């Protein structure tokens, strides 16, 4: 109901780490962002770890039943006389797509960013929520006679 992943993303990440391809901290493909997802009552909640990302650099887009989350962590600004000593924090574009089920209301998605965590809330559509159906007995039915 929830998630579409790129099966080659982790392979690319491992290859880049082992072979050191590209410049430090850059990615040839968007990097994955860690996520937790759960259902709480009448809404679906997804939390993405995006430490060090400016909230202005976060984009959410829904097209059909696919939610795309993109974020960009930019390198720290350094002066002309600064020399980079250690670069372990990846920067660049991070992206994740979630395939949303038909039972979710994509018109009422909300998102909040706090302490490096993006929390996306997607309400369950009213038509997809469980409802009780009354069962009538034979005594309750009226038959039409001509």
UniProtKB/TrEMBL annotation:
SUPFAM superfamilies: HSP20-like chaperones. Residues 26-138 form the SHSP domain. It comes from the Bacteria. InterPro entries: A-crystallin/Hsp20_dom (IPR002068), HSP20-like_chaperone (IPR008978), Small_HSP (IPR031107). It holds the Pfam family HSP20. Belongs to the small heat shock protein (HSP20) family. This is Hsp20/alpha crystallin family protein. It comes from Amycolatopsis carbonis.
